[in-house]
UniProtKB/TrEMBL annotation:
The entry's keywords: Disulfide bond, Glycoprotein, Immunoglobulin domain, Membrane, Signal, Transmembrane, Transmembrane helix
Lineage: Eukaryota, Metazoa, Chordata, Craniata, Vertebrata
Membrane topology annotation: Single-pass type I membrane protein
Any one Gene Ontology cellular component term annotated for this protein: myelin sheath
Keyword Signal: yes
Cross-referenced SUPFAM superfamilies: Immunoglobulin
PANTHER family listed in its UniProt record: MYELIN P0 RELATED (PTHR13869), MYELIN PROTEIN P0 (PTHR13869:SF7)
Main localization, broad class: membrane
The organism of origin for this protein: Seriola lalandi dorsalis
Keyword DNA damage: no
The protein's name in its UniProt record: Myelin protein zero
GO terms (BP aspect): myelination
Length: 203
């Protein structure tokens, strides 16, 4: 009887579906680009399980000023599908690597009308529960002044640090060389003085 119960328990446990766990999806927060340029929108996810062969990625787009989102891309069953009627039908390319949990897309030849919010959703069965992640795209005719100022400031700080490191390096070398020279002169003078005193004693 106990053997029968044990076997029944094993069978029942074997047919219970594997529980899903939460999946965490990552995208950038905001991206800036110029009209006519290309930009990569990254999407990846974290899951406690191995990457499933049934992994899926979906991208939707909501233009600025609109409440409705439209589907622009879907990856499932090892194949990528781009919406053939949307605004990116001829300007979207899948550049991700599902095996490495990467569902990134590339938007080409950007236009002013492309401003909006892009949302990525991913599933890694049995992990299918998770909140989609969104990134906002801002397209400019020229690089925003704020972005240019920040970039210039970062470059200036880096160059300043490099110059400071070089100055400190050569200053330390100079001080060490000066110290060595002083010790050498002092030692030589001391020996010379001792030799002179010895000669005076002999005389």
């Amino acid at each position: 009887m106990l053997t029968f119960l044990a076997l029944a328990s094993v069978v029942l446990l074997g047919i219970v579906p594997e529980q899903s766990q939460a999946i965490v999806i990552y995208t950038g927060w905001e991206r800036h680009a110029l009209v006519g340029s290309d930009i990569r929108l990254s999407c990846s996810f974290f899951s406690w399980r191995w990457t499933s062969e049934d992994v899926t990625f979906s991208w939707t787009y909501r233009p600025d000023g609109s409440r409705d989102s439209i589907s622009i891309f879907h990856y499932t069953g090892g194949a990528a599908y781009v919406d053939n009627k949307g605004p990116f039908r001829d300007r979207l390319e899948f550049v991700g690597n599902p095996g490495r949990r990467d569902g990134s897309i590339l938007l080409k030849n950007l236009e002013f009308n492309d401003n909006g919010t892009f949302t990525c959703d991913a599933k890694n069965p049995p992990d299918i529960v998770g909140r989609p992640s969104s990134v906002r795209l801002l397209v400019f005719e020229k690089v925003p002044i704020q972005a240019g100022v920040i970039t210039g400031a970062i470059i200036g700080v880096v160059l300043g640090l490099l110059v400071l490191i070089v100055v400190i390096y050569y200053l330390m070398r100079f001080l060490v060389a000066r110290r060595v020279f002083s010790l050498s002169v002092s030692k030589h003078g001391k020996k010379k003085k001792e030799g002179s005193q010895q000669r005076q004693i002999k005389v």
